[in-house]
Design brief:
about 350 residues; mainly alpha; Mitochondrial carrier fold; 12 helices; about 75% helix; transport; MCP_transmembrane; repeat; MCP_dom_sf; transmembrane
Length: about 350
């Protein structure tokens, strides 16, 4: 009798296992992943995005710092006068470490920012495409450049908002030099100091121009990158593509084009964001200009006022201060980020890619 019970339980267990496997296979065919597998896939996607952000940003850290210094320096006391001269000046006055000042803080921000951005883009593009396919006549529609632009904009806003306080203090840390009166010893100290002296709202100074700027910037990055890849795969111009797998070089070129378009459109908003982030920092004038004469120029009542004062006092060209080092930085940075993301996902074995 006991042996019959054992056999019966074993048989029931086998049947249950077979049923579970069949259900999982059905879900897989329908594109629905088991909870455990879905969580693992999400984690892998976040890791890939974080690694992509850290690698790409570290590769261009000196240009990132020079860009910020050019954006906020006073026109009456020029220290940094171009990309080559600026990099040489930093090397001469602060050494090799000066070229990477603020990079640790930057990576602490960009790693989660990039992870959230890439993952948010994947989820947003799926959701937007699903809603689009529910419209009559669009049942078999694919992602268009406009839909990719919308998904990229959503991803940019989410990622920017989630990590903005770290970006704000990173901007202040980056501006500090060896000769300046140090107020911040690191990211944690900067966050606590700003909270204590300026209040929680200060951590989001410049958030509005950042969000407005991130819509075309991130949106165009994803839209141009994915659309170029899609065009190369489908049209195969000049024999560039022989199969559906693009080479690393071709993907880098697509990323470079995406970065160039996105940063050119959004750059003025980035300049205004940086300037607004300096408001309320009592040592900002001495750090940027070496004297206190320009302190009044650091006072802005809002984004529109910052635009107006910048153009009135320094001309329209001031909105593109630091554009050259930023262009040299953004092109390889975006390219490296996209390619690293896809390569890390290949290594981790993630089925879903941004181009799917």
């Amino acid at each position: 009798m006991a042996s019959e019970d054992v056999v019966g339980k074993t048989s029931d267990s086998a049947v249950t296992t077979i049923v579970n496997l069949a259900e999982e296979a059905k879900l897989a065919r329908e594109g629905v992943k088991a909870p455990g597998h879905a969580i693992l896939s999400i984690c892998k996607s976040l890791v890939a995005g974080g690694v992509a952000g850290g690698v790409s940003r570290t590769a261009v850290a000196p240009l990132e710092r020079l860009k910020i210094l050019l954006q906020v320096q006073n026109p009456h006391n020029i220290k940094y006068n171009g990309t080559i001269q600026g990099l040489k000046y930093i090397w001469k006055t602060e050494g090799f470490r000066g070229l990477f000042k603020g990079n640790g803080t930057n990576c602490a921000r960009i790693v989660p920012n990039s992870a959230v951005k890439f993952f948010s883009y994947e989820q947003a593009s799926r959701g937007i495409l699903l809603l689009y396919r529910q419209q009559p006549g669009n049942e078999d529609a694919q992602l268009t450049p406009l839909l990719r632009l919308g998904a990229g904009a959503c991803a940019g806003i989410i990622a920017m908002s989630a990590t903005y306080p770290m970006d704000m203090v990173r901007g202040r840390l980056t501006v500090q030099t060896e000769k300046s009166p140090y107020q911040y010893r690191g990211m944690v100290h900067a966050l606590s100091t700003v909270l204590r002296e300026e209040g929680p709202r200060a951590l989001y100074k410049g958030w509005l121009p950042s969000v407005i700027g991130v819509v075309p910037y991130v949106g165009l990055n994803f839209a141009v990158y994915e659309s170029l890849k899609d065009w190369l795969i489908k049209s195969r111009p000049f024999g560039l593509v022989e199969d559906s797998e693009l080479s690393v070089t071709t993907r880098l070129a697509c990323g470079a084009a995406a970065g160039t378009v996105g940063q050119t459109v959004a750059y003025p908003l980035d300049v205004i964001r940086r300037r607004m982030q300096m408001v309320g920092w009592k040592d900002a004038a001495s750090i940027v200009t070496g004297d206190g004469r320009s302190k009044a120029q650091l006072e802005y009542s809002g984004m529109v006022d910052a635009f107006r004062k910048t153009v009135r006092h320094e001309g329209f060209g001031a909105l593109y201060k630091g554009l050259v080092p930023n262009s040299v930085k953004v092109v390889p940075s975006i390219a490296i980020a996209f390619v690293t993301y896809e390569m890390v996902k290949d290594v981790l074995g993630v089925e879903m890619r941004i181009s799917d």
